[in-house]
Design goal:
71 residues; mainly beta; three-stranded antiparallel β-sheet; 3 strands; 18% strand; globular
């Protein structure tokens, strides 16, 4: 199933807010904006079924977290 979405931020750039938990600073996380919210796509889910495609937010623990996004 799909994880929880975050309120869609205003402005041209889609970023992951701190409310995304670890995903906000993870190199594998990609924002997926919709009209109502911004969802987080986990890039690790493409190669490892242990990671959900759209994790429930906020993510507090993740063995696959790789710091790499701007905070």
């Amino acid at each position: 199933g799909a994880g929880a979405g975050l309120s869609r931020p205003s402005g041209p750039a889609t970023v992951l807010p701190p409310g995304a938990g670890l995903c906000a600073t993870c190199a594998h996380a990609r924002p997926v904006p919709t009209r109502r919210a911004v969802y987080v796509l986990c890039g690790r889910s493409r190669t490892d079924p242990a990671y959900p495609r759209y994790p429930g937010l906020p993510v507090r623990r993740c063995a696959g977290h790789a710091r790499g996004r701007a905070e």
